[in-house]
Amino acid sequence: MAAPCVSCYAALSCRLFLGGRVSLSQKQGVWKAAAAELQTGTGSQILRLRHTTGVSTKKNVAALRRETYTVDFIKKQIEEFNIGKRHLANMMGEDPETFTQEDIDKAIAYLFPSGLFEKQARPIMKHPEQIFPKQRAIQWGEDGRPFHFLFYTGKQAYYSLMHEAYGKLLEVEKRQNQLQAKGLFSEKTKTKDLIDSRWLIKEELEEMLVEKLSDQDGRIAVRRVTCLVSRSSYYAQFIRLLERLLTLHCGSEEEFVQRFRRSVTIQSKKQLIEPVQYDEQGMAFSTSEGKRKSAKAEAIVYGHGSGRIKVNGIDYLLYFPVTQDREQLMFPFHFLDRLGKHDTTCTVSGGGRSSQAGAIRLAVARALCSFVTEEEVEWMRQAGLLTADPRVKERKKPGQEGARRKFTWKKR
Amino acid sequence: TMLRRMTRLLSGARQARHGEQHAALHYHIPLQDLKTVFPQGLPPRFIMQVKTFNEACLMVRKPALELLHYLKNTNFAHPAVRYVLYGEKGTGKTLSLCHVVHFCAKQDWLILHIPDAHLWVKNCRGLLQSSYNKQRFDQPVEASIWLKNFKTANERFLSQIKVQEKYVWNKRESTEKGSPLGAVVEQGLTRVRNATDAVGIVLKELKNQSCLGAFHLLVAVDGVNALWGRTSLKREDKSLIAPEELALVCSLRKMVRNDWHGGAIVLTLSQTGSLFKPRKAYLPQELLGKEGFDALDPFIPILVSNYNPKEFESCIQYYLENKWLQHEKAHTEEGKKELLFLSDANPGQLERLCAYL
């Protein structure tokens, strides 16, 4: 009775071991659990108990194993994606050869219209490399020997990158020393414009290297004594190295560095400015629209005036008896310091009192853009005067009393 | 500002000299006068302001000046002229009326000031069937309050004026012919049930006697559109009462008719207390209705509008001098522009804004 249990038990533990090996990032806990099982005693009841626990740990192991996509699987997905892309191009009546990813996105948005607010929840069709998470291929051969020489550091990709970067740094320094020695060294400051680009953030770097960098600090060993020279993380050290490379005015290594920079676009260039129009008397005026919740407003701002505002033909003091609404109307003028200088006529419909005020404010701000310098337009945009408020009433969900409020909870 | 300080020291007695050059300046009413001339009738927010600043200052404005000019040149032989102050909400109609009332009080006129006619057509607790006329209703509470205030305002006249008829109140009490008006008022105050009738008698007597020329009579009614509007009072069987069925309203209507001479009638329209009228209505036609308009026709309409820039500046200066505006930006030009925009030069709105500044 005891012997067969032990043998099957051994088989179980072997399977556990094997299961642990396939995915490298398997927890140590499994190994420990298996070891504990082997070491403890062999009473028959205890064995029976352990048999059941063995089964349960096996299930846990199966659940804990991350989904590994084999290389073949990914290749198949890529083929299917390409075929699907051609089918889609055919469906839309486009040329399959010149069907780009943007065209795919537009086609999917057309064929599967979705009202979901979360963009990532909508249907997407992208290249499998962007959908399936990047996984490292098995990094050792059949004999168990790793391929990469830095495998045993634990973060082989990171250290190899650091090695490469440092190598380039040394090369550049050597070249510069040679040039200086020859006397041909010229102080050409060829630093590329770094304003509209930024370094990779840690998450992006992790994604690139398919390795986790968020561990403890990277200590530097100095002459056999591991003292904490600088308590900086792996990511910070890498960025510092790249910056050092940049300061040395390397012309040839720029591509290497640019791989780790992302561009930051300035939004304001997309702002549309209305042209100023002139009516019969020669008075300059400008028209524009604004929306808030379900209120739509159209405002006509005249260039010269005494600060009177008429809403739907009624004076704004009578139309908005509440001070808060009038403060909203005042905001664009007050921000630009043009309180008593413009006359305004507006029409507004829909919504409630507060949303009508917000809609008029947006319309007035947009109309004022045409009377004002570009810099002030940028200030207005940063102050939030030119952005339409995207908040709308949230939908009521079934099983709840309102959008967020749940029904009263009754214990029984 | 020098001129302003000068006028601020002017007491009410020199009001007769208020002319065009005093427009947009504040003038000071002694607190003692306030208690005698205005036991009722000042807007509540103004009373709060008076209590805070410990002084009563009214701004001299064009509509009031116009009215004063007309009043100075009234011909007492002609029938009484009706002046109607109308305008948007919060532009200063009631305070202009008070200015005029103060002026007339200083000139020794008899003031018949009804602070708010709307109070007589809504929220009345005790409605009695009138003993004098069976179809009408009495309002003892409102009538007695008004009689008390009338007594405080016109003490000296009550002994001078003599009643011209005999009035029998009930089996035991009556007022003889020739007794002073004060007796009627006392009777109304002590016997609250007869207060409404007392009011009616007072109004009738004053109307008859002003023609004789012993005194000048000023009838000042605030919210006169209440007399021709609707009431919110109900009988015991929950049916609505028309204003004609209220004795007080009837007597007032007779007063406001211009079939007497020897004085003037100054009226104010008010949407704020009115019943069943839209918020944006301010013209006489809209607020009075056809009936009221015909009853008051012909009248001289006087529009009271928002502050013009000079008046606005003056008001802000007044607040700053009394250290009422504590915000640092209130002194600067930008702050004043902000206030101007937010209140749109409306005196009521400006006062409300400044209350929390």
TrEMBL record, chain A:
<dbReference type="GO" id="GO:0070013">
    <property type="term" value="C:intracellular organelle lumen"/>
</dbReference>
<dbReference type="Pfam" id="PF00380">
    <property type="entry name" value="Ribosomal_S9"/>
</dbReference>
<feature type="region of interest" description="Disordered">
    <location>
        <begin position="389"/>
        <end position="412"/>
    </location>
</feature>
<keyword id="KW-0496">Mitochondrion</keyword>
<dbReference type="GO" id="GO:0005840">
    <property type="term" value="C:ribosome"/>
</dbReference>
<keyword id="KW-0687">Ribonucleoprotein</keyword>
<dbReference type="GO" id="GO:0005743">
    <property type="term" value="C:mitochondrial inner membrane"/>
</dbReference>
<protein>
    <recommendedName>
        <fullName>Small ribosomal subunit protein uS9m</fullName>
    </recommendedName>
</protein>
<dbReference type="GO" id="GO:0003735">
    <property type="term" value="F:structural constituent of ribosome"/>
</dbReference>
<comment type="similarity">
    <text>Belongs to the universal ribosomal protein uS9 family.</text>
</comment>
<keyword id="KW-0689">Ribosomal protein</keyword>
<keyword id="KW-0809">Transit peptide</keyword>
<dbReference type="GO" id="GO:1990904">
    <property type="term" value="C:ribonucleoprotein complex"/>
</dbReference>
<dbReference type="InterPro" id="IPR020568">
    <property type="entry name" value="Ribosomal_Su5_D2-typ_SF"/>
</dbReference>
<dbReference type="InterPro" id="IPR014721">
    <property type="entry name" value="Ribsml_uS5_D2-typ_fold_subgr"/>
</dbReference>
<dbReference type="GO" id="GO:0006412">
    <property type="term" value="P:translation"/>
</dbReference>
<dbReference type="InterPro" id="IPR000754">
    <property type="entry name" value="Ribosomal_uS9"/>
</dbReference>
<dbReference type="InterPro" id="IPR020574">
    <property type="entry name" value="Ribosomal_uS9_CS"/>
</dbReference>
From TrEMBL, chain B:
<dbReference type="GO" id="GO:0005761">
    <property type="term" value="C:mitochondrial ribosome"/>
</dbReference>
<protein>
    <recommendedName>
        <fullName>Small ribosomal subunit protein mS29</fullName>
    </recommendedName>
</protein>
<dbReference type="InterPro" id="IPR027417">
    <property type="entry name" value="P-loop_NTPase"/>
</dbReference>
<dbReference type="InterPro" id="IPR008092">
    <property type="entry name" value="Ribosomal_mS29_met"/>
</dbReference>
<dbReference type="Pfam" id="PF10236">
    <property type="entry name" value="DAP3"/>
</dbReference>
<dbReference type="InterPro" id="IPR019368">
    <property type="entry name" value="Ribosomal_mS29"/>
</dbReference>
<keyword id="KW-0496">Mitochondrion</keyword>
<keyword id="KW-0689">Ribosomal protein</keyword>
<keyword id="KW-0687">Ribonucleoprotein</keyword>
<comment type="similarity">
    <text>Belongs to the mitochondrion-specific ribosomal protein mS29 family.</text>
</comment>
<dbReference type="GO" id="GO:0006915">
    <property type="term" value="P:apoptotic process"/>
</dbReference>
<dbReference type="GO" id="GO:0015935">
    <property type="term" value="C:small ribosomal subunit"/>
</dbReference>
<keyword id="KW-0809">Transit peptide</keyword>
